[in-house]
Amino acid sequence: MMNYDNGTQSNNYANMTIREELQARFDELNRRQSKNGLVNDFANKYSNLLEKGANIYNDVENVSYDLTQRALNKKWADPSFDNKSSMGLALNEASRISPLNFSDVNKHRYISCVGANDGYASAVATLAGGILVKEGKDLYSKLRNEKNDPRYRNKFGVVGDSLKDIGNDIIGTVYGVTADSVNDCSIFLPNWARR
Fold first, then answer.
1. Which of 26, 108, 138, 173 has its CA 20 to 30 A from that of 99?
2. Looking at residue 108, what is its pLDDT?
3. In the chain, what is the greatest distance between 2 CA atoms, to the nearest angstrom?
């Protein structure tokens, strides 16, 4: 056996053939690189959080602008809107992907991710909108018509579906706040639905 470990033979490799030892060392190297990759990925996400937290004033200003523009026009989505905030872009994306036929789970995650990408103010506004407006509206309409929709069976099924949607909104929001750019959110879309 060859000596690799600071001039001493490792007990882990003592009973291996050269081929087995090389494979084991290669696997160990891959594990170390994976750990470093995880550390680098965590550091990048943490850096994004800090950077977005430092820009909270701009984030609040942009969200306010987008909400005002929509309130004055009495529309929530319009391609002509300026979309200064990622939340404004999320509202337009929601109207674009709503009619598309793919997983509701991924729709919730994608829209929340896009909406939260600017930072904390956008994340809070997007999450609040998803929970209070979208799920509130859904709960009201579904509870009134629960007997007409066999997917839910009863009121517990309706509430369970809304809780699942809220959980997906939270996952998308966390991913959006830590993502480098809004383009990273396309991970939640099938290839044919991406821009």
1. 173
2. 92
3. 78
How far from 133 is each of 46, 118, 126, 167, CA to CA, in Å?
A: 30, 20, 10, 15
Both tokens of 62, joined, read 């942009």
The pTM (predicted TM-score) of the whole model is 0.66
Dihedral class, residue 7 (left if φ above 0, else alpha if ψ from -120 to 50, else beta): left
Q: What angle do CA 193, 166, 84 make, to 5 degrees?
A: 55
Between CA 63 and CA 132 the distance in angstroms is: 17
Whole-number pLDDT of residue 107: 92
Domains in the chain: boundaries: 14-54, 56-193
Question: Which residues, including other chains, have CB under 8 Å from residue 168's CB and lie 6 or more apart?
Answer: 105, 108, 109, 112
Q: b vs e for 49-59, b when ≥16 Cβ sit within 10 Å of the residue's Cβ?
A: eeebeeeeeeb
10-53 pLDDT per residue, tens: 456 567 777 777 677 667 766 666 666 666 666 667 677 667 66
- In eight-state DSSP terms, residue 131 is I
| Dihedral class, residue 57 (left if φ above 0, else alpha if ψ from -120 to 50, else beta) | alpha
Query: Side chain identity at 187, as an amino acid letter?
Result: I
CA 42 to chain centre: 15
Answer whether residue 165 shows pLDDT above 70. yes
